[in-house]
Amino acid sequence: MVNCNNNYSGYKRKRALKQHSRLRKNHMILRLISVAAVIGLLWYCINGLNLKEVSPEPILSIGTDSPDISSADIKKDDTDDPLWSLILVNRWNVIPEDYHVDLTKLSNGQTVDTRIYPALQNMFDAARADGVNLVVVSGYRTAEKQQSLMDEKVAAYKAEGYSAYQAKTEAETWVAIPGTSEHQLGIAVDINADGVQSKGSEVYKWLKQNGYRFGFILRYPPDKTEITGVSNEPWHYRYVGIKAATEMNDQNLCLEEYLRDKN
Ligand SMILES: [Zn+2]
């Protein structure tokens, strides 16, 4: 009897313990679920913000007076001093050592020369009005950044089995040699689709048809690679001012040809 009782109370205790541990388990699972929900919510918030951050709308920041975005400003900007916007940089013309650039930061962290910011903003607004969503995926680059892009490209070709010389030669048709990249000027931008509302092909088409109206040219057209020394890059737009861009567009000239004809 005693044994029986002992067994019975032992059984009850076991059951209670089992129940207790089950409750603890459930409690733990609930806590894990709520922690996951909080993390999920945070992730969503941060991502939501990021999506906004990479929206093509440039937002002002560093150290410059806020440019007033109006067409009047762009016209003034365009005619006052055209020399800075017609600087030629390519594999045969390196950036002057004393080149200085004042930068304006865009909402996604990219930076551009402050002087092209109003025109860029205007172009993005016009594209958006046409239902095309643009993103600046690469603006100003330091020489160091350009060098690391080159190193990456060379390494990628080597990994494909190219010799050191071949890899370098091949890489240089895609990545500008440091000191010869327009990105180091801050007046060139790589523009792509936002990947949500627009596709790359739509963006390139829109830019090709409209870029010049805002002073931007398709810098490396497919039919000018011999002259520019760079392969077709439908995303790379360079600011030259509205007047020059319009003339180049009308006469189908790349920057090298335009400057040669002018001189
Ligand atoms: Zn580019």
UniProtKB/TrEMBL annotation:
Keywords: Carboxypeptidase, Hydrolase, Membrane, Protease, Transmembrane, Transmembrane helix
Sequence intervals crossing the membrane: 28-49
Alphabetized Pfam families for the sequence: VanY (PF02557)
Enzyme class, spelled out: hydrolase
EC number: 3.4.16.4
Gene Ontology molecular function terms on file: serine-type D-Ala-D-Ala carboxypeptidase activity
Source organism superkingdom: Bacteria
Xref: CDD domains: LD-carboxypeptidase
Gene3D superfamilies reported for this sequence: 3.30.1380.10
Annotated ranges, domain D-alanyl-D-alanine carboxypeptidase-like core: 111-241
Gene Ontology process terms (BP): proteolysis
Protein name: Serine-type D-Ala-D-Ala carboxypeptidase
Taxonomic lineage: Bacteria, Bacillati, Bacillota, Clostridia, Lachnospirales
